[in-house]
Amino acid sequence: MGKNILITGAAGYIGGSVLADFISRTSGPIKAARLSAAVRSDEQVQSLSKLGVNVIQVDLGDETAVKEVVISNKIDIVVHTATAIDGHAVSALIKALGQRRQLSGEETYYIHSSIASVFAEENGWPYGEIRDSDPIYEKEKELGDAHIIRKVNILVTELAREQGVTSMIIPVPQVYGRGTGEWRKLSVSIPASIRASIKHKVVYQFDTDGHPPSVHISDLVVFYALLTENILQKKPIPRGEKGYYFAIGHRTHWWEFMQRLAECLHARGLVRKPRAETWPSDEVAADYLGFPRLYVRAMGTSSGDLVPVNAYQLGWQPEWDEKRFIESVDDEVQAVLELDTVKSTLFDTVLSKE
Ligand SMILES: NC(=O)c1ccc[n+]([C@@H]2O[C@H](COP(=O)([O-])OP(=O)(O)OC[C@H]3O[C@@H](n4cnc5c(N)ncnc54)[C@H](OP(=O)(O)O)[C@@H]3O)[C@@H](O)[C@H]2O)c1
């Protein structure tokens, strides 16, 4: 019998694109699975209901509601893309999968979407180069709970172990490209830069360059599918404390990207100069981009020396490299002009405390 997969954040950029990819599969183990999509609002339910999957409206912070969803839909695998920082949601999902495992006697799985930039020096990572096959959990433990993303990563591994749930963590790098979901189709960083540049008629960059790991959304969803297929086929892949997967396609050199963006926007008559200028201050950058002041500099300048091993060992072959990305910057602009209809809520909690 096919397994039951729940994708959280299914109205979001990554979750919506993962769902679209899973639905489009015409053969293979995902095709045989029953898909459920967790969303938050009435409008999202309506929007996704035409897809022919089981759409569930649930606030993931509500432990009782999450348990009901997982048990009544007999969920075996959760692909969590809703939030990397909300420990309540993570805890509710893992505990519910623990109960489902007890009831079914079958293994249950939790795939967590985290944030790769937590392994950059600007975010307090002191160890330099890190491979996803290194003992990352031990290193995160050594650093304690200072960073919310690390705190949630540790929670995932430890709570899953305690509940008998098999866990995997995907520290997601900077993602770009058009999403293929039904609701939010744009990512975070690059659309924010494009929006701010058009609004203020100038492309700004930080005074320090950054080279963050990056991935095109189409390559990222293929990785989620590959990982899910390996789980469905019960392959002995890294899991638990060893279950980190850096889904990194290439690096992005921010200054090169900003220069190209300035040229593209200038050619469209949307900015005054075909060159990027330096942000007047981090505060202005935070205000214009809509990012929390605490993180804006790290978001714009951090690199991190992340080496993907586990992801590639599964046979993942990303199709996008940096050259292709830089050549596609004008389409990033076009995507914002066409698809910027749903505001991101990713930073709402942090911004409300500033
Ligand atoms: N995009 C990137 O470049 C990137 C890079 C690294 C890591 N990530 C991480 O990957 C995850 C997904 O990113 P994304 O770009 O797809 O974000 P997104 O477009 O904002 O999608 C997240 C979705 O999860 C939903 N959600 C959040 N909290 C929820 C809750 N408590 N209950 C139910 N639903 C909830 C949101 O609902 P609403 O629609 O109602 O807001 C939204 O639809 C995030 O954790 C993000 O930090 C993203």
Automatic annotation (TrEMBL):
Please name the InterPro entries in this protein's record: Epimerase_deHydtase, NAD(P)-bd_dom_sf, NAD(P)-dependent_oxidoreduct
Q: Which residues form the signal peptide?
A: none
Q: What GO CC annotations are associated with the protein?
A: cytoplasm
Q: Which residues form the NAD-dependent epimerase/dehydratase domain?
A: 5-230
Q: Which domain of life is it from?
A: Eukaryota
GO MF terms on file?
aldehyde dehydrogenase (NAD+) activity
What is the protein's name according to its record? Answer: NAD-dependent epimerase/dehydratase domain-containing protein
- Specify the species: Talaromyces atroroseus
